[in-house]
Amino acid sequence: MNRFKDKTVLVTGAASGIGLAAARRFLDEGACVVMLDIDEAGLNKAAADLPRDRVLVQVGDTASKETATAAVKAAVDRFGGLHVLVNNAGVATEGDIMQTSEDDFAHVMAVNVTGYFHMAKAAMPELVKTRGSIVMTSSVSGLGGDWNTFAYNTSKGAVSNMVRAMALDAGKDGVRVNAVNPSFTKTGMTEDMLKDPELVAKFKERMPLGAPEDPEGVAAVMAFLASDDARLVTGVNLPVDAGVTASNGQPPM
Questions:
Q1: Which of 59, 160, 187, 241 could tie 183 with a disulfide, CB 3.0–4.6 Å?
Q2: What residues act catalytically?
Q3: Domains, the chain, ordered by start
């Protein structure tokens, strides 16, 4: 497939995990890709084997308005426009409300919610010009509650409704806004969890298709949502969760 030839895609959190898988997927489908991440060393390593004529590396914290503005400007200056924003950068902390510090809560919300706001607001004028698309990384934790991740759950709930609100407002300008909602995915964020066989087994009980998910599978759905194949799809929070939400996350009887 070559669905993104002559199009530019900006991916946040692109140094690893779902973001890196998304960058590679869009490149494979012909796009020019701006890879944005706060991890400069990781970002440079990730981009080392990618086609340099179609890749632009940008380092910055997406919680900063200045980072968002600079990244969008860089995309337009280098590649002539912007067609897709993949709002993917995210962080998580463990703990219930009593175990979550004010600083941890503020940091999670700054990256996972305010960062998405800054990026989308900076990108929107360019996306209106191209009748483009935004794909956000939410979570099944943004569709329902989950244990021991209070701040993360709160942030992803906000992202899921941000998608709906933005889709309603931006539709008049031809801009579509959707989200993927993964469950347990093999990324750096879940590295410690993957080392616990008992925990992995519990997740498998909740997933009809098994666990954990691979970032490439999530990236494939992102590419679909951003493509013209999904031209009638907007305001959708699409579970990419191996079937968790089909049974409300309950293990088999």
A1: 241
A2: 152
A3: 8-185+215-236 (3.40.50.720)
